[in-house]
Amino acid sequence: MNVTIGQYYPADSFVHQLDPRVKLLGVTLFIAALFTVNSFAGYAFIAVCMGLAIYATKVPPIFMLRGLRALIFILIFTSALNIFFTAGNTVLVSFWVITITLEGILNAIRMVSRLTMLIVGSSVLTLTTTPIKLTDAIEYVLGPFKRIGVPAHEIAMMMSIALRFIPTLLEEIDRIMKAQMARGADFDTGGLIKKAKSLVPLLVPLFISAFRRADELAVAMEARCYRGDINRTKMKVMRLERRDFKALWVMLVFSAAIVLLKIYI
Amino acid sequence: MKIIEADKVCFSYRIAGADGAEETLAPAVRELSLDIGEGEFVAVLGRNGSGKSTFAKLINALLTPSAGQLNVSGYSTAGEEHIWNIRQTAGMVFQNPDNQIVATIVEEDVAFGPENLGVPTAEIRARVDEALATVGMGDYALHSPHFLSGGQKQRVCIAGVLAMKPRIIILDEPTAMLDPIGRREVLAAVSRLNRQEGMTVLLITHYMEEAVMADRVVVMDKGAAVLQGTPGEVFLHGPLLRELGLNLPQITEIGARLAECGLPVKPGILTINEMADELCSILNSK
Amino acid sequence: MLHTKLEINNLVFTYNKGASFEKKALDNVNLKIGAGEFMGLIGCTGSGKSTLIQQFNALLKPESGNVLLDGTDIHADKSRLKEVRRKVGLVFQYPEQQLFEETVAKDVAFGPKNLGLPAEEIEERVKWALDMVGLTPEMGEQSPFDLSGGQKRRAAIAGVLAMKPEVLVLDEPAAGLDPVGRDEILMKIREMHKRTGITIILVSHSMEDVARLVERIAVINGGRIVMDDIPAAVFSRAPELEQMGLSAPQAALLAQELQKRGFRLRDGLYTVEDVVAAVAQELSVNKGLNHK
Hints:
The structure holds three protein chains of three kinds.
Chain A: H1 14-17, H2 20-36, H3 40-57, H4 61-85, E1 91-95, E2 98-101, H5 102-128, H6 131-142, H7 152-181, H8 192-198, H9 200-223, H10 242-264
Antiparallel strand pairs in A: 1-2
Helix pairs in contact in A: 2-5, 2-10, 3-5, 3-10, 4-5, 6-7, 7-9
Chain B: E1 2-15, E2 24-37, E3 41-45, H1 52-59, E4 67-72, E5 75-76, H2 83-89, E6 90-93, H3 106-117, H4 121-134, H5 150-162, E7 168-172, H6 180-197, E8 200-205, H7 208-211, E9 216-221, E10 224-229, H8 231-234, H9 238-243, H10 250-260, H11 272-284
Parallel strand pairs in B: 3-8, 3-9, 6-7, 7-8
Antiparallel strand pairs in B: 1-2, 1-4, 4-5, 9-10
Helix pairs in contact in B: 3-4, 3-5, 4-5, 5-6
Chain C: E1 4-15, E2 23-34, E3 38-42, H1 49-56, E4 64-69, E5 72-73, H2 81-87, E6 88-91, H3 104-114, H4 119-132, H5 137-140, H6 149-161, E7 167-171, H7 179-196, E8 199-204, H8 207-211, E9 216-221, E10 224-229, H9 231-235, H10 238-243, H11 250-260, H12 272-287
Parallel strand pairs in C: 3-8, 3-9, 6-7, 7-8
Antiparallel strand pairs in C: 1-2, 1-4, 4-5, 9-10
Helix pairs in contact in C: 3-4, 3-6, 4-6, 6-7
């Protein structure tokens, strides 16, 4: 079984090489911008910036749009909601109980562009950053909160172990399922209750195995002197390079532009 | 110089009684005495439940003896104060490679140990590269462990231990889950480590053929060392080994049976070539 | 003449067909297995052996070619898939990991229950299956997790046996067990074959284990059956086996080495007993020694 975790698309681009923390900041600014502006000029500006960023990733744009596929239903639903239920003065069509107003259509366009850009924009981060780097960045960002009891290191460790074991457990599920099917188990037919019941022979062995793995892993980690982040060093230390500062400048200009747009348009 | 000094070490697992019954003790290691010297290659044989894995965990201070004295590199495993020194000195490789690899990238996994020890960043890099090269996995540094074969994964685990610069490596049935190719790869790596780098090795195994590579074989049963010596010496005791739930390597078995037939075959021969030499000399003598 | 139980014709199978990482796992495999045969299927990891056995009971579907059970294509009638899976019992590697019930007996009953059998029949089969693998009725009442490694594995095999399969496929039944556990399980399998006359396919990469049991060995490498013969003939091709990451039993290798050095041994010796007998005879004839 082949499983790709996250959606990382390997390519040799400026964006790929950026420090994950810078990218995380970039996406945060981008999302903030999306919810700050509400003029069409603002959206257009953000869309152009996003387009340029996508171009810089060297990832085929089709991959960016993939994330939308899963959300197509939500997009349609949101636009329908906006179109049919926005009260407004400029009535365009009206029959039976349905009234469509210009405001409704504009609202729908606004919501759909926001959501679409939100998804496509965030995928720039996930497509160009390996999950492990993302974990490092999150650990760094959570770092300051350690003082108030946020277990930043533990959260990051848990995330990376989960990433490491997801493919292993998926394989395990496949194997146990086949083994039970060979004993006549049926996972496909029957009503909801029967289906839920049929999962017992799959889930029990899966949990037992997961616990055993967790136990063995804990012992193995202990044997390798793991004791949380006490006195711990790292092989790969994240360091801001010249390109990261360049990216930070671009972000600064972008933020300034958004503020100006908000004030003057 | 002794790295491991075990003197009458005992250990029992506590088994919680069902329904509030009192817990019982299941002795796993009983009065085990065993010394391992610098640079030695020791194989430990024994059936399931003979206490071999428990002994390994005692050396690594994952468990502490309930009686007796166990010193690793001069540190007693009994107290808490030297625990990290002991674990760094005695590196452990377990049976299932999937359940001991922590990271999603090979080199990051190898770095895990030194990172825990607080080794400076630049030195970790050097150690990781060296360790991966030693086990012949240098080309896979940036691969995902998930797509490696069992033998390759297990070699990554060995590298992960090597990067901690231990003085002894303990391998707890490292080949039990591998196919013949994987087994060969791992054993070749272990044997090279011992012969070329002078690393002390403690290999726990079910496979008699693997014990043949060792300088010394220790046979455990019911938590104690019941037989030890060079492989040639230990495999002289065919009937006793069988009683202990083990068997002989096929070649040694053939030699023993030929001797039973009244042929003057030297006992304790381990390899095909030696056996062929021996039988030829019997054929040609007179 | 042996009735053909399972027949594999020109079987081709590719994982992730069409994707950039597609992998051809089986490449024109042909194999005939007679009713009541005890055969070994040997290959190293990645040779395609696991894929092949999943074709035997329709867990995977051929890309081209077919699998015939008693002369009928197993994919011909979708409603008969369950029947096919009952007739071809598949015991996966480390089968003890699929145990899930509170007691061994309940777990063994899982398969028969899925067949919708009456309670008495189920009970009967559970008893029979436990007996077949050498577990006592008392062990049947225990939790599977209280058994030893070898016993757990035998309990899992009983779970498949209780389906009363006509063909039993065992994938590495002895993997990871200690010598006693290994011997126990292999001897039980041999006994099972003798007592029931069921067709058994033993999948392994351990030549030593297989050599003691089977009548015929098929070697799979790179998704193709590269040898299919009696054990003696297969082991005589030791250098080829070596190249595929396999090896002949040590006894066979010793016999071959001795032949090279001028011992007059007959070809195709591979068990310890045969090698000892042949060598003893050769030496005593030459030396005038008496062997007891």
